Amino acid sequence: LLAYDFLFFFSDMDTALGQGLYPLHRCKTVHLVVRHAQGFHNVAGNKDVRAYFSPEYFDAQLTPLGWQQV
Questions:
Q1: Number of H helices, E strands in the chain
Q2: pLDDT (tens digit per residue) in 11-67
Q3: What are the domain boundaries of the chain?
Q4: Which tops the pLDDT comparison, 70 or 1?
C-alpha cells in the first residue's frame, strides 16, 4: 500500500459503529488447536533432547498421563 492508500483505508472506516481496526467482512477466522498435555515425544525428550528432532515423534500421540491431563 502507498501512504495515501494507507490513510484512505483508515479514514474510510466507521468507528462509530463499533468496528475495530479491521472490519469483520474483511477478516478471516482462524481456529488453532493447542494441546497442553504430555506426549510420547516429551517422555523421549526428557531422556535425550535429540529425540525432539526425530521424525518418529512428529505429531506424537498422548501418553496415558497426557490423556488424564486433557
A1: 3, 0
A2: 544 544 555 688 888 888 888 877 689 999 999 999 999 998 999 998 899 999 999
A3: 27-69
A4: 70
β partners of residue 39: 62
Q: Are 41 and 51 in contact (CB under 8 A)?
A: yes
**b/e code 25-36 from CB counts within 10 Å (16+ = b):** eeeeeeeeeeee
- The C-alpha atoms of residue 16 and residue 14 are separated, in whole angstroms, by 5
Cα separation of 12 and 5, whole Å?
10
Identify the CA nearest to 62 among candidates 31, 41, 45. 41
pTM listed for this prediction = 0.49
Three cell numbers, residue 25: 467482512
